[in-house]
Amino acid sequence: MKINRAMTIETNEIQIGDRIQVGHYTATCQALPGKGLALFLLDQYLDKAMQMNEKNTNKGGYQESDLRGELNSEKILKDFTGLELAPFDNGDLLRLPFYGEMFGHDDWYNSGAVEPDDCEQWPLMKERANRVAERKGESYEWGWLQNKYVRSAAGFCFVNDYGFANDWDASYSIGVRPAFLIKLS
Predict the structure, then answer these.
(1) Where in the chain are the domains?
(2) pTM greater than 0.70
(3) Residues 61-105: tens digit of each pLDDT
(4) In the chain, at which residue ranges do the beta strands (DSSP E only) sit?
(5) Are the C-beta atoms of residues 48 and 175 closer than 8 Å to each other?
(6) Cys-Cys with 100: which of 60, 116, 119, 164 at CB 3.0–4.6 Å?
């Protein structure tokens, strides 16, 4: 009989697919971007659904969104205490995934409906099951992505509860599944 067993080990050598504990969440390594860094994504949505913007607009994109400010607030960052977080290029410690990281540049992306990004799909996200998430043991739900839906003045892209892409109005509250960088020793 063949058995696959998950094991907890102490190591400084992170690999794609490794899982860590982050407060009461878990997170999985999605990429190793070099420079002694590992990129992780929470496996669950944060406990509270959030709006991209209080006003129903995608003006300014994710960079000027209400959600970006809330995501990088002390209120949320406290759950990441104990991790040696590294900032992304824009200085943020937490961010939403890009469309390209979740779905690659598929037909919907190439149709011009999605704000462009220069991201490659994370290897684990090639499996639809890895794109879906839940919050607090509830059923699977929708979760925000950074990219605007360009055919609307209010829409942003999201991952639906079946692991497919769609768009939704910025003022609706849905799941938030942050990505973050950890410094490797």
Answers:
(1) 19-183
(2) yes
(3) 999 999 999 999 999 999 999 999 999 999 999 999 999 999 999
(4) 19-22, 25-34, 37-42, 50-51, 85-86, 133-134, 140-141, 143-148, 155-159, 165-169, 173-174, 179-183
(5) no
(6) 119
